[in-house]
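#struct-help
A.M.: can someone run this one for me? Single chain, 66 residues.
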Amino acid sequence: MEFNWRDIESQAGHDAYFLATHCPTAMIFTPCENGITHNNEENCTPENFVAGLNILLHAVVKRADR
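D.P.: on it. Structure tokens below:
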């Protein structure tokens, strides 16, 4: 499967902000309907998460195979 992606600048830190001082860290954003994320107006369905979960799965598998 191929998904569209882009680098984005974000002030969202969550746990990744604190973990980054101890280990390589990244965040996967999966925009919901109309591209809205991290907002009370977001309307997400399971289909919105397919790309993000696929990326996470493959990243974990690739890391485990090292």
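A.M.: thanks! Residues 16 and 26 are 7 Å apart (CA to CA).
D.P.: also worth noting: The chain has a mean pLDDT of 81.
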